[in-house]
């Protein structure tokens, strides 16, 4: 399943690089790791701190035969796959925060950024970008706007190469089978890992905020928020979840 494997010391953003390849019709199965990113991208237009040796940062390019509807819930399924890779090494206390942050002990351990390319109605392509904190210096905190945790603090001694290999061994087969399986194959697992299940949360967009109880996700990966006797669904792109 693996195409080109690119290992770099430094790059602007592995997501940007893989996206550029997909836009030229290349890059299916391409994987790029970078020790350092000078313009690492996070969700909702934020940056992703990626100093040298501070994490496992990589992107995978994948081309699908079909439209963007095939990708519904994919970012949540990627979150589940990351937790499975971490479980292989016995990392404790791993949870997910909707839509796809990996949390540990109430803090963020890893983030996922999906970016789309191509003809979204017919042959869509996606970049799956993953950033996992491993060896991130405390000094990086200045640039990070939420509580974070480092894998070395939770479970030191995991080989970086071993972990990188396990992550790919989870993610590449997921991408291969996702058009057939869809989110239905991951929904139950996602809900089992939901850090905020049954708890009061806030959903925050650039201009608005909603408060309610986290009632899990539907079969498209939308978050179900119960408030004022009704439910409201939220889709990943523009909103973020916070503890109420
Ligand atoms: C988030 O939680 O906001 C998503 C963070 C995603 C970061 C990764 S690091 C590798 C890849 N390249 C990027 O520029 N971003 C993603």
UniProtKB/TrEMBL annotation:
Entry keyword set: ATP-binding, Biotin, DNA-binding, Ligase, Nucleotide-binding, Repressor, Transcription, Transcription regulation
GO MF entry, a single one: ATP binding
Residues binding biotin: 13-15, 37, 41-43, 108
GO process annotations (BP): regulation of DNA-templated transcription
Enzyme class name: ligase
EC identifiers of the protein: 6.3.4.15
Keyword Disulfide bond: no
GO cellular component: cytoplasm
Keyword Nucleotide-binding in annotation: yes
Catalytic activity: biotin + L-lysyl-[protein] + ATP = N(6)-biotinyl-L-lysyl-[protein] + AMP + diphosphate + H(+)
Domain BPL/LPL catalytic, residue spans: 1-179
The family this protein is said to belong to: Belongs to the biotin--protein ligase family.
Function in brief: Acts both as a biotin--[acetyl-CoA-carboxylase] ligase and a biotin-operon repressor. In the presence of ATP, BirA activates biotin to form the BirA-biotinyl-5'-adenylate (BirA-bio-5'-AMP or holoBirA) complex. HoloBirA can either transfer the biotinyl moiety to the biotin carboxyl carrier protein (BCCP) subunit of acetyl-CoA carboxylase, or bind to the biotin operator site and inhibit transcription of the operon.
Protein name in UniProt: Bifunctional ligase/repressor BirA
């Amino acid at each position: 399943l693996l195409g080109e494997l690119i290992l770099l010391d430094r790059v602007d953003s592995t997501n940007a690089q893989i996206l550029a390849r997909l836009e030229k019709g290349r890059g299916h199965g391409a994987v790029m790791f970078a020790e350092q990113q000078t313009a690492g991208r996070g969700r909702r237009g934020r940056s992703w701190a990626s100093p040298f040796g501070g994490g496992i940062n990589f992107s995978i390019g994948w081309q699908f035969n079909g439209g963007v509807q095939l990708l519904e819930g994919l970012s949540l399924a990627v979150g589940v796959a990351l937790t499975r890779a971490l479980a292989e090494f016995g990392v404790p206390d791993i949870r997910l925060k909707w839509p796809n942050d990996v949390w540990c002990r109430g803090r963020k351990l890893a983030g996922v950024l999906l970016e789309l390319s191509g003809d979204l109605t017919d042959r869509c392509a996606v970049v799956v970008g993953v950033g996992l904190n491993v060896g991130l210096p405390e000094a990086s905190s200045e640039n990070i706007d939420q509580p974070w945790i480092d894998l070395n603090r939770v479970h030191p001694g995991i080989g970086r190469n071993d972990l990188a290999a396990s992550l790919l061994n989870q993610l590449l087969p997921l991408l291969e089978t996702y058009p057939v399986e869809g989110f239905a194959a991951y929904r139950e697992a996602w809900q089992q890992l939901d850090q905020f299940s049954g708890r009061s949360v806030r959903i925050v967009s650039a201009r608005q905020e909603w408060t309610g109880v986290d009632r899990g996700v539907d079969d498209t990966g939308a978050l179900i928020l119960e408030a004022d006797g009704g439910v409201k669904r939220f889709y990943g792109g523009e909103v973020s979840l916070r503890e109420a």
